[in-house]
Design goal:
- There is one protein chain.
- This protein is an alpha/beta fold and 507 residues long.
- The chain folds into 2 domains: 159 residues, Leucine Aminopeptidase, subunit E, domain 1, CATH 3.40.220.10; 323 residues, Aminopeptidase (3-Layer(aba) Sandwich).
- The protein is built from 14 helices and 20 strands.
- The strands form 4 sheets. Strands 7, 8, 9, 10, 11, 14, 15, 16 and 18 form a 9-stranded mixed sheet that branches.
- The two termini are 40 Å apart.
- The chain binds ligand BES, manganese (II) ion (MN) and zinc ion.
- The site of ligand BES has 16 residues, from helix 11.
Length: 507
């Protein structure tokens, strides 16, 4: 889809439909007032009759009878002015764009919503709007063979701004918004694509493509390499499948000096059947998205390179299927991890922490300044927080705070859970150093505490994205059903903030 930034008044803009934002409980914004005058007071009429109030996400289509350059107007409720946030602007833009597609328009123009609010920069508003549009219009239809019945695509969006001085900022926001949202949609594509296509080998190919498109360094470890290194935990999970596991390492060098990198680690279980501790059939098909963390790391590496972030970043994906078979790991098996610690595998369905144990230990070779892992790790996280927040764990209050700040800025919610030592008893094994399950109480916490045994002294954050990676219910304004691509916007914001902070330190 194409985005244009146009200087001029909205009244003069010729489009299939114009979107006009409106704050609940207020008079018309200047642009709306001049349009309303031109079309004979139709907007005031629907406000007076309360057919349209400007309630958040409300929409109403009006005809202009060609009294302005565009034949139709879509009024868009922005809610109360005092309640406007960037995320609300993102949602409103997403809602308007999907309505426009439903009404079968191919193109639209709009002003920048939320303009002139003292707290929010126009560049950020433009970025949020473009994100809302691109994310909201996402559809996964590669497997629909009847092209005729597919909804028509919206081809073009024009952002109209009368003030010349704002144009460059808007253009910058548009570029950033597009880059980020298209990467989120790339993550969604990978997670929506079934496991017979997105195998560990396919993830390695995706990494290869990113590496060659954006000049990143790529290293893919094969099964034999993992054996040589002693990645017994990941190899244990990979024993049950005929799909070759891949340990994917992507390095982006954006900092001039060879400074310490940030390590991003993503759980990349391309299908989680549970293994011998087989999952029930109901909803098992959804376990194709158990590589969401890894896909998010791939997408984030791509954005970091596209935006030329002045940082060194290493992305790590320990990729494998988790399948039952005659060669699969048995419950009770003991594996030796890369770190040397031994683990008794009580439940083969607690495979994510095994894969991550080796990946977190491997990441330390880079002496990273910070390490963040994303994983669809526990069903318990879905129980605790539902679908609207990732669980945040960490061993470094500063890093936690930085991730929380990025969360607030992007609207990708995180919520902290504790890593108190009292929980450690639950993962002590009778015969090995650790066991891979801690029972039902505090299931997300004991999983995170398990991971903590493999991070050493490195500042580390673990994000459990089990609840936020998949939208199984109804479409939200910029989150269609299926994979959500959660975490990418958060990571990119964290990295952007970090780059800024380092720049100001070095001055
Ligand atoms: N991938 C699952 C966690 C999951 C569940 C993600 C639901 C998304 C939605 C993970 O590998 C798993 O199976 N965890 C087990 C751990 C248990 C056996 C200790 C779980 O949460 O049930
Ligand atoms: Mn599992
Ligand atoms: Zn899993």
């Amino acid at each position: 889809m194409e985005f244009k930034v146009q200087r001029g008044p909205l009244t003069k803009q010729a489009s299939e439909v114009l979107i006009l934002g409106h704050y609940e409980g207020e008079g018309l914004l200047p642009e709306a007032a001049s349009i309303d005058k031109a079309i004979g007071g139709k907007i005031q009429e629907v406000l007076a009759s309360e057919e349209f109030t400007g309630k958040f996400l409300q929409t109403l289509l009006l005809r202009t009878d060609r009294k302005i350059a565009s034949p139709r107007l879509l009024l868009l409720g922005l809610g109360k002015r005092s309640e406007v946030t960037l995320d609300r602007i993102r949602q409103a833009a997403g809602r308007a764009a999907t309505q426009i597609r439903e009404m079968k328009f191919g193109q639209f123009a709009t002003q920048i919503h939320g303009k002139g609010l003292p707290r929010i920069a126009i560049q950020d508003l433009a970025q949020a709007m473009v994100e809302g549009v691109v994310l909201g219009l996402y559809q996964f239809q590669v497997y629909k063979t009847d092209r005729q019945t597919l909804p028509k695509e919206v081809r073009e969006c024009t952002l109209v701004e009368p003030d010349e001085k704002k144009i460059v900022e808007i253009q910058m926001g548009v570029l950033r918004g597009r880059t980020i949202a298209e990467a989120v949609n790339y993550v969604r594509d990978l997670c929506n694509t079934p496991s017979n296509v997105v195998t560990p080998s396919r993830l390695a190919e995706e990494a290869k493509k990113i590496a060659s498109d954006y000049h990143l360094h790529l290293n893919v470890l094969e099964r034999s390499d993992m054996e040589r290194l002693g990645m017994g935990a990941l190899l244990g999970v990979a024993r049950g499948t005929v799909e070759p596991p891949k340990f994917i390492v992507l390095e982006y060098e954006g900092a001039k000096k060879r400074g310490r990198p940030v390590a991003l680690i993503g759980k990349s279980v391309t299908f989680d059947s549970g293994g011998i501790s087989l999952k029930p059939a109901e909803n098992m098909e959804q376990m194709k998205y158990d590589m969401s963390g890894g896909a998010t790391v791939l997408g984030t590496m791509r954005v970091a390179a596209q935006l030329k972030l002045p940082l060194n970043i290493v992305g790590i994906l320990p990729a494998t299927d988790n399948m039952p078979s005659g060669t699969a790991m048995h419950p009770g098996d003991v594996v030796t991890t890369l770190s040397g610690k031994t683990v008794e595998v009580i439940n083969t369905d607690a495979e994510g922490r095994l894969c991550l144990a080796d990946a977190l230990a491997y990441a330390q070779r880079y002496e990273p300044m910070a390490m963040i892992d994303l994983a669809t790790l526990t069903g318990a996280c879905v129980v605790a927080l539902g679908h609207h927040a990732m669980a945040l764990f960490g061993n470094d209050p500063k890093l936690n705070a930085h991730v929380q700040k990025a969360s607030e800025e992007t609207g990708e919610r995180v919520w902290p859970l504790p890593l108190w030592e009292e929980y450690y008893d639950q993962i002590k094994s009778e015969i090995a150093d650790l066991k891979n399950t801690g029972g039902r109480p505090g299931g997300s916490i004991t999983a995170a505490l398990f991971l903590k045994q493999f991070v050493g002294e490195t500042p580390w954050v673990h994000l459990d994205i089990a609840g936020t990676s998949w939208n199984g219910e109804r479409p939200r304004p910029y989150v269609p059903k299926g994979s959500t691509g959660t975490g990418l916007r958060l990571l990119v914001q964290y990295l952007t903030n970090l780059a800024k902070q380092q720049k100001s330190k070095s001055r």
